Each structure stands twice: as C-alpha cells, then as structure tokens.
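Below is how a single chain appears once it has passed through the pipeline. First comes the sequence as given, then the structure the pipeline wrote out for it. We keep one example in the README because the format questions we get most often are answered faster by looking than by reading.
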Amino acid sequence: MEKKLTKEERKNERNNELCRLIKENDLEAETRLLMENEGLIIQVANTVRVRRNINSSDGIDKEDLMQEGRIAMLTAAKTFDESREVKFSTYAFEIVKNAMSDLCDHGQSSFERHMEEAGLTRLFLDAMDPRVSENALSGNGTSVEWHDPTGNLAVLHVMLEKMRNRLVMLPERMRRLLAYHYGLGSGEAKSISESAAYFHLTEKYLRAIEKHTLEVLRDMMNDGKII
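Resulting structure:
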C-alpha cells in the first residue's frame, strides 16, 4: 500500500518539481513557485524588519524586501540540489534572508542594481527629467553632469519605483519579453539570440518588438504622475 504523503511532504515535492522546471527556463513555473511560497517570503520580510528595526523612513519598505526576496527565491530554485535531502523551503529561507539583509545594508535592491547595469535607468530618466537628453532611445544620448548627489539618488529611486509599477501594466507578451531579456525578477539577463530562440522569433523581429515595447513603456513613464 502506497504511503500517504503529509501536506508538508506534498508541498516539498511540489517545490522540487517547480525547481526542476525553473532550471529549464519555465517562466510559468517561476510564477507558481513565487505564488506558492509567498508566505515564506512574507515571514522572512517580517523577521528582517523586526531584527533590523527597518521602517519606511530608512528608504526601505516591506515591498522592497518582498521584491528582493522573490528574486532571491528564484536564484535559490536554480541552485537547489534536491539530492542533498534538504527541503527547498529550508534552503531558500537562508538565501532569501541574506538577500534581504544585504538590501538593508546597502539600501539598493537587486531590481534597481540590475536596471542600472542593463542601462535602462538612463533611458527612463530621459522620460522623467528634462535635464537628460531626448536621444536615449536612439542610443545617441549624451551624459549630463548633475551637482546634487542626494537629489540625484532621490530622483533615481522614484524613477525605479515608477518603472516597476509601469512594467506590470504592460501587455503580458511585452512584459515577458523584457523580463526574460533583461533578467527582471531573476537577475539573469539573456542575449538577443537566447531571447529570440526562447520566444521562437527571429532576432530582427525580436529587436523590433523590444524597441516598440520600450517606446510604450517610456510613454507610460512620461504620464505626468510621480509614481
């Protein structure tokens, strides 16, 4: 007679299955893993907030910690080795906690760092601040020197928060393409050729779709609203 699994054992098997799919670049599995383990991310975020005495006046709120935790959980899924007989939740807990603690230490999320590294901050600062060149989309933007470091950082944080909000408003196909190519959410960017192969598109067509998507997102960023 087959042994009946407990609820915890079923959840662990489900996590193992989703981790295997995520390693095969299954975006739907990434979404399912995050949804089914949202409680763990909330638990860790609350623990870190209490232990580090973090509040919104520090420039980091709970949603910042949650976003950092989601990125860390996907990283954990890709490195998880179920043969070691450690539950995924136990393994992910430490990785998520460390990522949130690092955010508290450095004050800049992985999402923000990755958007800067991908060069997208320069593109969308253009849409929000008249001091930046209007040529960012064509790649002919010129560097502008600002002389207020504190003000610059404040503008950058507001812009990134607005960008995050507008990304979720994009049509699903556009959002998935940007997320995959630039590594938004996973922190692992893909090349044009890798992205084209994943979405079964030619590189030329993918570039055209991406250019249109960035133009749409830029218009959304320039909607006159702060956040």
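The two ends are 58 Å apart (CA to CA).

See the next section for the split statistics.
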